[in-house]
Amino acid sequence: MQLSTRCAAMLLALALPTHAASAAAPAAAFSPTDPRHARLYLLERQAFALFDSDDYALSMSQKTRDAWARLHVAALRAKVAGKPHPLAGVALINLSSMDQIDGKNPDALAHANDGLALLAPFADAYPVAWMQGLSIKGYVQAALGDVTGAAEVLAQASHYMDGYIARTPPDKLDPSTHMLRSNIAFSHAQALTRLGRNVEAVDAQRASMEARIAASGPNSPDTIGAYYTYAQMLQRADRDVEAEKYARMAVDIATDHIDRKHPSYARALEALGLLLSRTGRRNESLDYLQRAIAIKRDTVGTGSLYFQFGLQNLGTVLLPLERYADAEPLFMEAERGFRGIEGENSPQSARALAFAASAALAEGHRDQGVERFNAALARVRAGSDKDRDIGQRVYPYLIPALIAAGHGEEARAAAAAFAAETRQLDNAPAIPLAQAAMLSAWTGSDQAALGETARRLVGLLRDDASVHDDAELTEEQRAALDTILAVATQAQDAALALDAMAILAGSRIAQANRLVAQRLVADPTLAARVRRLQDRTKILQAVDSRLLKALATDNGVAAARTERAAVAATVDVERAAIARDYPRWVEANGGERPDLGALRDGLGEGEALLAVMPAFDGVYLLAVSAGGTRIERAQMDRAALVALVGRLRGSLTPAGFDQSSAHTLYSQIFTPGILATLGRARALRIVPTGAFASLPFGMLPQRPVAAATRDTPWLIRRFAIEIQPGFADAKDRRQQMAARDQRFLGIGAPLTFGAVQTADAPRGAGALSQLPPLPGSQAELRAVAHRFGMERTTLLVGRDASEAGLRGRDLSGYAVILFATHGLVGGEMEGVTEPALVLSPPAADAVGDDGLLTASEVAAMRIGADWVILSACNTAAGDNAQAPAYSGLAQAFRYAGAGSLLVSHWPVRDDASAFVTLETVKGAARGLPRAVALRRAMLKLIGSKRPGAAQPYIWAPFILMGR
Questions:
Q1: Inter-residue contact 264 to 258 (CB < 8 Å)
Q2: Taking the model in full, what pTM does it have?
Q3: Local structure of residue 259 (DSSP, 8 states)
Q4: CA-to-CA distance for 771 and 494, rounded, in angstroms?
Q5: Alpha-carbon distance 940 to 27, whole Å?
Q6: Which of 372, 424, 642, 806 could form a disulfide with 691, with the two C-beta atoms 3.0–4.6 Å apart?
């Protein structure tokens, strides 16, 4: 049985025949070929013949165990210089290998220890068996929790292996020896990583990779795994550029050289999926990860570590997508699988359990989350108190949960343990150090230190977001921001809350504009400056880490502060220079850090601002008005409120809606404290993210209602509402369009795709052909055009509503642009990876057109319109279910230079769309503030005699989007 090939991922040591060891110089007083022991050699050959069988069941059968046991008993009786023959130890080491494969780790450790003790006096005569025994012992020690002991044993094995390689002629080293060397180094790297010794782990894994190449060649399935594992180690050591290089190498080689049914092809797909996830394309990564799991299920089965890691990897990609309910069962299945293979105290099962605990917290199951976190800690601590990795995973979630549950003493003890363990990491990142300091202050009595440490942590999170091109927050970062917001709520520190919320909102904006930003950094000058800023920010992170460690140990604080101040100054200068020279790039990446004073000063008379921010397990509210500020955490948790939003959206029909959900949402958001802060404001700017970006706030009833009527006390009756994706101040909001030449451009009623054949048809052309025609959109366009007058109107309808028709037109001279067509959410159809408007299919000979006007194409336009109206399905949405606030097409049009946007949450009835559009434009033309114009248009529609007009399904989808 070739264990290195079958079980490389499980670190199974090779069961090598004795003749493989005979290349080394034997001990002077002993020869492994002494003819006096011929019977032992026969028993050895018989055992190896069974163990090396291609029949896996036979190789792992009781018959094989019995063969090794016979060799062991016979060798114990055959004395060499008064000691048992070393083949007694060889037999036990191979039994330990079988135990390990069967998941019997305690038995494997006992057999390995006994075998090594018997073999020790003869190690140089059986060097490969000796190293095999050390490899198994080290791996099993780590699996049982003794990570420090495992690292020491594996370091010993690696050192011995290096000496063996050095003294053995190259032509005497067969691939099996190199494979054993690779497995030992791999196991050593894993142990070092768990101890937080990431720099050493990189070196160990590189040795494993080089040995794997020597054993199997650069293109083998085994080597592909070594490439990707090396990439993972590099990433943990913050060497991201090198990490990406090796991850891509693994994917490319697997694609070119691996059979699609080979288990290693699944690993390549998984590698690609994880790489896509790292670069912010998590939705795309899911297909690869799910395919990898399916292949593993058919090839290695569900009882392998490969399969369990696949489940866990898929779950970790779902977490930042906020698909916690989907991730949790994956982690629990992996936990059971790891435990079944590695035993009750399996560290891998503890990690899977910790992931499941965080998903439970995010779903609002605090008690279950705390129970799982404690169980994960206990499981690892049962074997060793030196495992730092599990604490880094658990404590940032567990401590705030304990505080929220009122378990102050437990929280204080956990915070002390977190701080102590983090200080002991050899290259502790700045963020965990800052988290540990903040949580220690929160569980202590020094409130001044709490504010200082929270502000330091939010600054580090802001810097960290700026050095990653994908801009997406991990669930660890989201949990850290949730904790900061909890601290800000407790202290009523509005500036701190605004800083944390700006990171949450900015991440959403940057995700929405990822392709836009990519277009911008195609400018080599900007690209170089951005990379330089990111490099300097990484240096600042390292300096921050040194300062935080100095503060934690009270050693070298002054020097660390001086160093930090100098580096921070250079970063601030570079960041300010880019903001000055490339303001659109800054806006596309989430905007500059907001200032609370400037935000308040930017509010108009009678205007207030309300931020509604789901973080990790909570939803936080920040109200800002001329009269003051107020921060609250909603009484219901994030998962429950997100479910309410989904229930309300799903219930909306022309005949009614879920009145209970609508009023519950109102009472959760517009609490007495929030309403008191908003005071007498009549205009409200709302900054929502996540699921709340899809909430039509205007339709929330201010008191319980049984049905929608003309007199229902909707929120729109109290406030004129404008939606903002972020916290940019209002100083650049445009003047009313009354002073401008009111030229109108209408685009809509495109031809359907149907059977039209094009040279550049999108991959989703089949699905596009299923979209229905929009006969009412042409009537809507003509009704609006009549208001402006045909002499000031341009209509592009039918075949003219095309990419070519827009591309050749100067759009800067139109005051109002209206699109009346289908809108698509990114990922809604195959091949449509970003939000898009559906236009007419291009001509058969057209090149470069696909009939879709995507968000990144919109962003490249130059639009001078005061109004852009997107009267289409889903134009307020982004590119996933937890999309950034109005991130999709609306954000792209704003980026292209549009003033205000009027967009819709769901498909709009033609007559209602035309009515609201016309009334809003007319009101703004008379000088009304735009939010007020939209509010009056909605109320006028509600009060009209149009069929069903009082139902929010008819009037509520429209939103006004500002900056």
A1: yes
A2: 0.73
A3: -
A4: 47
A5: 100
A6: 642
